[in-house]
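Archive entry: two folds, one per protein. Generate the first.
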Amino acid sequence: MAELTPIENIVIQAMKEIGATTEEKKKTADDIAKKCNRPKSMVNNTLVTLIQKGVVKRVAREKAAGYYVMGA
């Protein structure tokens, strides 16, 4: 797995705690931001870098996109 920054680890841990571990259980950036108690903009930026590193998968939906941890 790619080397993760402290905020990336916080976001990944929050996603696992709220169960965002499969496509069927994907969560929005709002859900993740609330869980890790960080600003949504910070979580969005972190999610982008995690997607680029291949750790998180983004699923486009009609309203908010969903995210989940791959291989969790």
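Generate the second and append.
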Amino acid sequence: MANQKMMGYLPNDVPPTGQLILLGFQHVITMFPATVFVALLTGFHVSTVLFAAGVSTVVALLLSKRGIGKFIPLFYGSSFSYIGAYLAITNAEFGVPASDALLSQLQAGILFTGLLNIVVGFVIRAVGKDVVDKVLPPVITGSVAAVIGFALGFAALNLATENWLVAIITLFVTVLFSVYLQGRGFIGMLPILLGGVVGYIVAAIFGLVDTSAVGTTAWIVAPHFTFPTFTGSLVVTAIFSVSIMAIATIPESTAHLYQISLYVDRTAVEMGREKYELDKSIGFNLILDGIGDLINGLMGSTAGTNYGENNSLMAITRNYSGPALIMAGVISMLLGFVGKFSAVVSTVPLAVSGGLAIYLFGVIGMQGIALMVESKINLFDPRTLAIGATIMVIGIGGHIGFPGGFLPIPILEGIFPSGLPAIATGAVAGIFMNAIFLVFTPPQVARESAPMTSSAD
């Protein structure tokens, strides 16, 4: 018997109009800090990124309803996984858009990312996820995710140099919010936004906030659209370094689908309704991811991913409504036309962004380690040690140690005139090494579970 007192909305439910709008705004507030931060940090236009995030979310939802008869309730925002690849091309200053020429070359890479997701989605539908997991085991996906976060550490610290005190205050306030507001309802979902606001106020006290551009910016402006090109000197570099990062976003997207499917089905049972079993649509979900990135690549926006932040919001509020997410997408599109909004966002000082980035980039790195721990990766196995070590050193050392994060390896100079992008090269090296182990299977060595002793004993 259905529990009539149970409050919540399943994916195909349509809340009343007033609730629909409020629930949509709540989704936008949740995705906003991370999505806008990526744009500001990497040289993309905030208005374009907000508009494209809305479009890709709406399109994915409508296609899921048409394809499987159910909404897959996910919001698509800017992915952090591609930041290193973007910065290697744009060398952007925080809040300063990169040239259209550089963005157009990056868009070629984002389009290829979309195609790669679509191909992997069809492969999974054909052969199953287990086969893909052999090619991209957790030691690879986890190591790449860790590299993405830790390799960006220098960029975060460099932002903080504008004013170390402001950056440190921003960092610690954000950490305190994330720890002590956890489990306290909706406000617990906004530690980054709240930390940024406090940091902004402190920066204003120190005279670091310049709002002169806000008064001269029109209220209504069109998003700054750029179009992809395949002829620039950095196009191949962009395609290689951006598209290979799908290694990190594909398992991330799959994990988010499993997460939301679990919560949706649990809520459905509690409400006495039929389960949705969204986790059966792993391949289709990746195809939707790919379509979203095709949209981003055509418009001049960052590559996207479905947001765990919004998943957590839905779990807390028990609102899994697809129409509510469509409303959020529409609101995000409308925000892309508000010129004053983009101007205000661009006044965020570098020191505040640096404080936030230290935390956010570190969390990305730690999540990569958590993925390996959760998957029970055996770090006493020489194979996993070799794969993880190679990815880590090439990716982190190369990105931090060489200008622009390009390895000065004299091969394929005609294709990669600036050198090989370190993070992507580390990922490919790990995949290649794993492939060797799959073809030429090493002997299995029995290991006793006796405690390890120090060599000094």
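Annotation attached to the second fold: Residues 395 and 423 are 4 Å apart (CA to CA). The chain is about 65% helix and 0% strand.
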